[in-house]
Amino acid sequence: MRVLFILITVFLFSVGAMAHQTIGMKANQSTSTPSNSQHRAKHKIVIAHRGASGYLPEHSLAAKAMAYAMRADYIEQDVVMTKDNKLIILHDHFLDRVTNVMSVFPNRYRLVNNNKRWFAIDFTLAEIKQLQMTEGFTIDPITHLKKNIYPDRFPIFKSHFTVSTLQEEIELIQGLNHSLGKRNGYQVGLYVEIKAPWFHRHEGKDISTATLKVLKKYGYTKKSDKIYIQCFDANELQRIKHKLMPQLFMNLKLVQLIAMTDWNETYTYKNNVAVPYQYDWMLKKGAMKKIASYADGIGPWKPMIIADGSTIDHLNITNMVTDAHAAGLVVHPYTFRKDPGRIPKYAKDFNQLLDIFLYQVGVDGLFTDYTDVAVKLINKHEKELQK
Ligand code: G3P
Ligand code: CA
Q: Domains along the chain?
């Protein structure tokens, strides 16, 4: 069933892939593409956020195949570790938002702030493979009914999806690069996020080293390879840059993801006590230069670039992109969604939102759940430039 789904999605969108190619862009030339005009326009990249997650359950192989066929430049992997040290693709280090783990293993939870959470790290890969994966859901506290987080997306617990490993996903993308991309002159890249390394290391698991080893095994070793590694944990990113990659004779492009401090996205441990990481310095003057000492790019939250409260006539654009570019960093903000309620008020629709970020602010690419829309908009813009 899963394989059939993949084949159908690839077939359906391969026509679109051909159309994309006619404008002369090659996805394996990700940094710059000459245009016919006197300008050398830099190709803006589309990062398929958790795959084509607007249409199929996030991080399912079907969603990745669909994103590939829609001609994403990069496809995102969020990486988490299992009890038996296997790397799986999952947005949270919990299983309960996107699987039926609560029914299959009702007692295998930990309490976090009095909430039951089923941690991936407490399950072996064989156990996780028994679970059915689905579109993200919440549980109504009164009726206890499960409902889609995004009502217009793929219905929950329909069809059949499972959690995949990092290896399985790389083999899918590399397989498509061989069977589809190579024939048509492009290659799709990986955009790998190492999730909560502070947590994994506290649990005795070096997720960064394990991830790098898998990437190396599959041929990703140098800056020019079509891959970015992203992480919210600045300390870990510096460890990857200055210690782990040199030890492994690797030198991949790194992206510092930027969170708001009050999200408690990252912790550090002081005397075994978890202390929230303070992100505030990343929003201050001089931060981009500092980040450029260990990373190649930043992944900021949209409102860090255009402040909430902006209007279409008065966009309050921060200095972040200008400062990042001056420091030599690329900028790939997250996350662009066209679902109801997810488009900031300063844009009349999703296309206008993308256009503002890509062509008014000048970001270098973006994370989106709707790869097809972003690819279409960028293609149109690049075609215009070629006239
Ligand atoms: O990784 C960038 C983007 O994915 C934002 O983070 O993982 O919370 O969706 P995430
Ligand atoms: Ca991510």
A: 196-347 (3.20.20.190)
